[in-house]
Amino acid sequence: MSIDPGVYTIRNVMHRNFAAQSSEGTVVAYADRITSSVGLYDPYGDDEPDYWWSISRLDNDKYSIRNIETKDYAASPNFPAIEEDIITARNLHQWDVKETAIKGKYVIYTNRAKTDLFWGLTDGQLLTPISLRNKPNTQAANLQNVATILLGKNRMLQDENTKLQDEHTKLQDEHTKLQDEHTKLRDGAERLNEDVRQERARHLQAEAELKAHYEKLLAEEGFLEQYCDIYGKND
Q1: Coiled-coil regions in this chain (predicted)?
Q2: Which value, in Å, is the radius of gyration of the alpha carbons in the chain?
Q3: C-alpha distances in angstroms, 69 versus 50, 93, 126, 185, 234?
Q4: Using CB atoms within 10 A as the burial measure, which of 120, 136, 179, 211 is most buried?
């Protein structure tokens, strides 16, 4: 059964240690949390260990195994031999990955040496280099050399958290847009109210001017009538 491309952790079945990239450019055994007198420790010296691997299927049905953090590929020496350490390199390197008789458990190996050489551990100590082993012949060795490839659940949780953060950011942006739209509507309503107030003031002013003009006309008309009465009698 082939492996789907994705982000994985690679864990040794017997010792239950993870494969991680060390600062020396090798692949070593690592535990999720190593407690010491000075706190938590990881082989690469960073806060987050480099045990996440991107496994990709190549066109020739082989696989590349690339560290997520460092972008280095897991590789073997140019002329691989038994007990040589797995190293890391910047250039693409290919591996065979095959499921064993136990479902969900796989072996990682190379046949560049004309014989299958498998990823394996000589012991269960932390930071022990993962090295090439010849094909196991016993059940104990078989378990020791089988790597369980598990989908990186923590990575999935991190991705989900990132999605939630992105969604939160989108909601914040949408909220900001709504607030801006509300502000625009409020400003528009205030401008409209101001226009109404100004129009009402102009109307009152025009009404007052019209009334004053009308009263002036009445006054002038009354004066004219009075004038005519006076001078009409004299005639």
Answers
A1: 154-209
A2: 43
A3: 6, 17, 20, 49, 120
A4: 120
3-class DSSP state of 129:
strand
| Domain extent listing, the chain | 6-151
Other beta carbons within 10 angstroms of residue 95's beta carbon come to 22
- pTM comes to 0.58
Side chain identity, residue 102: I
Judge whether 39 and 145 are in contact, CB under 8 Å: no
Residue of 80, 78, 119, 88 lying closest to 23 (CA atoms) = 88
Contact predicate 67/88, CB 8 Å: yes
CATH of 6-151, one of 3.90.650.10, 1.20.120.50, 1.10.8.870, 2.80.10.50: 2.80.10.50
Give dist(CA 125, CA 13) in Å, integer: 14
For residue 226, pLDDT over 60 is answered with yes
Backbone angles phi, psi at 8, to 5 degrees: -135, 160
127's CB contacts (< 8 A; 6+ apart) are 22, 28, 29, 30, 43
pLDDT of 48 over the 70 cut: no
Q: What secondary structure letter does DSSP report for 5?
A: S
* Mean pLDDT computed over 10-22: 88
What three-state secondary structure class fits 10?
Answer: strand
* Distance of alpha carbon 159 from alpha carbon 61, whole angstroms: 28
- Establish how many alpha carbons lie within 13 A of residue 192's alpha carbon, considering only the half-sphere containing its beta carbon: 6
